């Protein structure tokens, strides 16, 4: 990790009960932030947008003291966003770490579409995106590390999952998967509540689960996740990626090449967990 951003974690004043949400980009970070917000406040009417309740602590474009001030002002149980690996975050017994996994190919396709929307809103055009998600995905898979300390986008996802998998049996590390959230949202929310030690009255569950669905998050996008000047339509941020959408773009040979690449990094058990479908 960049030394400046790493210093944020070293100097960040944690509190007992803090929750750190670790996920590679487009793997369900905002979804789990929303779930944590609903569990902590126990109402769909959140007191502030998610980017204020749970700012990205190590956002490379963010200002350290401003992010720290946001968190210092909170009196609720805090849930902290990061795209960093667990290996880059202090391991503290009083903190719970939620790691979110997703099929890397599906995450890549979601990233492609979000960048397209961002470019359209700004009036710019990233030529590297091109007009074909398939061509872009093939380049994404084949991209080599920029340096020994700067992995490729695919390599970065795999390393984050490897770090989390190695710690999956620790009592304060929780692994959840995008496909599990898609298949059984209520069940996963109840499991997370149990792991976080949060009690929710039974009559509140239907409203909380409904508020965590993509349809409700999309409808409330202007309130819960505003992106002023970044996207033309905040609701477009909540584009629900279809399971298997990445693999569908590839030929049998190209998909085999992808699996050969990732098998050089991760063991079969974690790959089976990472690539499964709902």
The CATH architecture can be named as 3-Layer(aba) Sandwich
Tally of alpha and pi helices: 14
Order of helices and strands: HEHHHEEHHHEHHHHHHH
Low-confidence stretches: none
Strand order of the largest sheet: 2-1-3-4
- The count of strands amounts to 4
> CATH topology, which one?
Rossmann fold
State the end-to-end distance: 33 Å
CATH superfamily: P-loop containing nucleotide triphosphate hydrolases
- State the shape: globular
Mean pLDDT: 90
CATH class bucket: Alpha Beta
**Helix/sheet category:** alpha/beta
Number of domains: 1
Radius of gyration: 18 Å
Q: How helical, in percent, are the residues?
A: 40-55%
* Share of β-strand residues: 5-15%
Largest sheet: 4 strands, parallel
Organism: Streptomyces phyllanthi
Domain Sulfotransferase: 17-254
Protein name: Sulfotransferase domain-containing protein
Keywords: Transferase
Topology of helices and strands:
Blueprint: H1 3-11, E1 19-22, H2 29-41, H3 50-53, H4 64-73, E2 79-82, E3 96-101, H5 104-122, H6 133-142, H7 153-166, E4 173-177, H8 178-183, H9 185-196, H10 205-211, H11 214-219, H12 221-224, H13 252-263, H14 268-275
Parallel strand pairs: 1-2, 1-3, 3-4
Helix pairs in contact: 5-6
Walk me through what this model shows:
Residues 17-254 form the Sulfotransferase domain. This is Sulfotransferase domain-containing protein. The structure is a single chain. With 278 residues, the protein is an alpha/beta fold. The protein has a single domain (3-275), classed as Rossmann fold (3-Layer(aba) Sandwich). The chain is 48% helix and 7% strand. The protein has a 4-stranded parallel β-sheet with strand order 2-1-3-4, with helices on both faces. The radius of gyration is 18 Å and the shape is globular. The model has no long low-confidence stretch (mean pLDDT 90).
